[in-house]
Amino acid sequence: MASYDRPRAGGSPRPLETGDTWWYAAVAGEAAGSFSARVRTRTRRGCLGAVLLLTVVYAGLVLTATGRRWGDAAMTGRRADTAAVTVLREHPSLAGLTTLSLVLGCVLLLAVGLIRKRYGLTGLAAGGIVTALALTGLLQRYAPRPRLADTAGLMSSGFPSAQTSLALGIAFGLALVVPYRLRSVAVGAATLWAIGVGAYTIAAGEHRPGDVIAAAPLVLAVYCGLLAVLARKGKVRPGARRGPALPGLPVTVPLALLAAGGLGVGLWLLGDTLALPSTAPYDPAELRLAHRCGQALAAGVVAAAGLVLLGLLRRVDIEGAPTPYRLGGPFVEAAGVPRDDELMGPFTEDLDHEIS
Questions:
Q1: Angle, CA of 186, 192 and 197, to the nearest 5°
Q2: Which residues of the chain form beta strands (DSSP E)?
Q3: What is the pLDDT of residues 200-248, one digit of tens each?
Q4: Rounded to 5, what percent of the chain is helix, strand, coil?
Q5: pLDDT, tens digit (0-9, with 9 covering 90-100), for 96-145
Q6: Mean pLDDT highest for which of 297-306, 311-320, 346-355?
Q7: What are phi and psi of 237, to 5 degrees?
Q8: Please, which residues have CB within 8 angstroms of residue 121's CB and are 6 or more apart in sequence?
Q9: Do the Cβ atoms of 199 and 298 come closer than 8 Å?
Q10: DSSP conformation class of 237
Q11: Which of 11-20, 98-107, 346-355 has the highest mean pLDDT?
C-alpha cells in the first residue's frame, strides 16, 4: 500500500474512532493532510535554499571587486567571441523575436489556463510572474552596489535580468496550468527556451552572466512559496506513479545534460577567468574565455532551477482536491441514508459488517 495511504499522527481531521481502519483514515483525509504537509515542507525548503543561493550570487558577483571584474570581462568578451558576433550580425531580428516570444509565452500561459478553466491557478501563475518581476525591479533599483565610474562604456548592473525572470516565470507558471501528465514536457521545453533568452541577453550585451544567474533562484523562490501556500491550503494531492516522467524524457534529459555540462564547464573555466589582472589591458583570449564561462554557468543554473521545480513537484498533482468518496450498496442501506455533508465509507456502524 502506498505510504501516503497509511495513518500518520496528527494528520487526520478528526480523532480516529473504534472500528476505523487505515483505509477509512485515508478516505477521511488523513492521507491528504500528511501528503500536503510533506509537500509544504519540501517547497518551503526549496524556497529557503533559493533565497540563500540568490544571496550568495549577489554577494559574490555584485559586492566583491573580483566578481564585478569577472562580470565586466564576460560582457566585454562577447566582442572577442567570433561565434556570438557572427550570429548577432547575421540575424539582427533576434532582438525582436526574443521580445515577441516573451509576449507569446504570456499569451500561451493565460490561454492554457483559461481554456482548461483553471481560473484560480491561472491567476496564481500570473501573480507569480508579477511578483518575480516586481522583486527584480526592486533589486535593480534599490539593492546596494558600489558606485564606480564606468570608463569602459559598459552598461550599469541590471541585477537580476528582467527578461530571464519573465521567461522563467512563464516556464514555471505552466506547471500550475498544464495537465499533470504534460507537466514535464511543458516546463522542460519552456525552461530550454528561457535558457535561450538568457543566453541572448548575455551575447547582446544587455546583461552580465550574474544577472541571468540571479534570475533563476529568484523565480524559483517565488514559485516555491506559491506551492507551499497551495499545500498549506490542501490544494495538492498524490499524482499517478506513472505520470509525466516517461513522456517528458525527450525534454528533461537534454535539460539535465545542459545543467550538468553547463555547471561543470563553467566552474572549470571559472578558476582561470577569475585570475584576470585588476586593470586593463586584458588578453582577448581571456575575455573570450570569461564570456563562454559566463554563458555556461548561466545556462547550467537556469536548467538546474527547472529540474529542481520538477523534482519538488514529482508525483504531486495540483489540479484540485479529490472528489469525496461515497459508497452505495446493502451495507450503506443497512446503516441508513447519509446526510449530504456526511462522508460515507464501506465501514458502517453496523458492527456485524465491520472489518477491522
A1: 120
A2: 237-238, 316-317
A3: 999 998 999 999 999 999 999 999 999 999 999 989 988 877 656 667 7
A4: 65, 0, 35
A5: 999 999 999 999 999 999 999 999 999 999 999 999 999 999 999 998 87
A6: 297-306
A7: -150, 160
A8: 113, 176, 177, 318
A9: yes
A10: E
A11: 98-107
Per-position DSSP letters for 162-202, written without gaps between them:
HHHHHHHHHHHHHHHHS-GGGHHHHHHHHHHHHHHHHHHHH
> What are φ and ψ of residue 317, in 5° steps?
-105, 125
Per the CB < 8 A criterion, the answer to whether 300 and 308 are in contact is no
Assigned C-alpha cell, 97: 523575436
Whether omega for the bond prior to residue 281 falls within 30 degrees of 0, making it cis, is yes
What's residue 351's pLDDT? 45
pLDDT value at residue 3: 44
Judged by DSSP in three states, 116 sits in coil
**CA pair distance 208, 198, nearest whole angstrom:** 10
| Predicted confidence band of residue 278 (pLDDT cuts 50, 70, 90) | low
Cα atoms in the Cβ-side hemisphere of radius 13 Å centred on 93 = 3
d(CA 192, CA 305): 11
Please identify which residue in the block is written with the cell numbers 455533508.
Answer: 341
What cell numbers appear for 257 in the block?
545534460
- Rounded to 5 degrees, what are φ and ψ at 238? -65, 135
Q: What angle do CA 95, 101, 104 make, to 5 degrees?
A: 145
Is the pLDDT confidence value at 332 over 60? no
pTM of the model: 0.80
Residue with cell 492554457: 112
Q: Are 173 and 126 in contact (CB under 8 A)?
A: yes
